TrEMBL record:
<keyword id="KW-0489">Methyltransferase</keyword>
<keyword id="KW-0808">Transferase</keyword>
<protein>
    <submittedName>
        <fullName>SAM-dependent methyltransferase</fullName>
    </submittedName>
</protein>
<dbReference type="Pfam" id="PF13847">
    <property type="entry name" value="Methyltransf_31"/>
</dbReference>
<dbReference type="InterPro" id="IPR029063">
    <property type="entry name" value="SAM-dependent_MTases_sf"/>
</dbReference>
<feature type="domain" description="Methyltransferase">
    <location>
        <begin position="62"/>
        <end position="176"/>
    </location>
</feature>
<dbReference type="GO" id="GO:0032259">
    <property type="term" value="P:methylation"/>
</dbReference>
<dbReference type="GO" id="GO:0008168">
    <property type="term" value="F:methyltransferase activity"/>
</dbReference>
<dbReference type="InterPro" id="IPR025714">
    <property type="entry name" value="Methyltranfer_dom"/>
</dbReference>
Amino acid sequence: MDKNKDIFGKAITAFYYDNDETDIIVHSPDFDDDVIPVKYLFREYDEMPVLEQEALDLCSGKVLDVGCGAGGHSLYLQKTRSIACHAIDTSPGAIEVARKRGVKNAECVDFFNLKDDAYDTILMLMNGSGIIGKLNNLDAFFKHARSILTENGKIILDSSDLVFLFEGEEIDQEMYYGELEYLVSYKNSKSDVFDWLYIDEKTLEKFAKKNDFSFRLIRKGKHFDYLAVLEPLKSS
């Protein structure tokens, strides 16, 4: 997510080795700065929101943990459920810490560069749709996901409907309102600008059906977020 600057890796390694709780700051041209407490990236199952817990409970078979960060989801699935996980992230620092914490198969690789493997579950949490970047990338996302899923595999993904941010305002119809630009900073380091996609459930369902995936809404959260399961439909 933070390109070559590895902002998340710096924060995660500083917390892991030195207990440095300096926050990660999220910047957007459209909204006020937000904060990601680095300690939150090390939360245990009991500290996770219900929506996140339910996502982990739905995992089965061989799991691809996309954007694993410090590896908390994979660690829980390994230790508590004895599930084999392939944890991936584009942050070298995060992967180093995930391995140190005990994730057995952690790799620094981009989701879209994966090939020659098959997963029963693709797990995409903490606004898992974000890495898709733009709405017009969704077809390519579904095509790639299908290529690395087993016949009975599934995607478990969460996202949010940002329409609430525009209450009383006219929404620009030329650009989807869930397409945002961010950059993140930590101490004196700042990432490049990157695209991040929030997608409402109706739009995600529409694209899923277009790409021959089923859509199942599992739960809605308290903050316009939701959890969904997407499964490739079998050819008739």
